[in-house]
Amino acid sequence: MYVDLSYSANGGANEGGGTNGGGALTTAATTTTVATTTVTEPPFPCNNCPKIYDTTCQGFGIPNWYQWCPTAAEAGIEYTLGLITTLFPFIPLGSCGTVITCPLTTALRIKLFDREIPAPVFYAWCEESGSNAGTWYTGTSLLPFELVSLACRPILDG
User: How many other CB atoms sit within 10 Å of the CB of residue 87?
Assistant: First the structure.
């Protein structure tokens, strides 16, 4: 907030637009409003599968320009229930799924066990029922790769 403190020493009208009686101090306050944009995630439709996008991602430029990753909302991550099998018929029916399109200047990386690697695919699924319920995969149902997490990371890293 900016505060304009105008004072007229001559006892007349000051430059703030009021009459100051005998050199009294008058004030005028100006408030500036800054517009902000908040990005929110769409509703999560899955029941037995956790979200797979890396929850440690804090947003563009945080903690620095080399190690940042966009939040799930900034990356536009959306989850579907059952829809992914219509796009990719080799995924088990009724699976929770996501198709990832990373923002410009980032690329998808997946975490398998304890190592993060460039993603050869752009989708992931999680079975809602059965022996593999709650576990995320990529690849195909014939050759699945179990995922720990996935994230959009800067193409140029430090």
Answer: 11
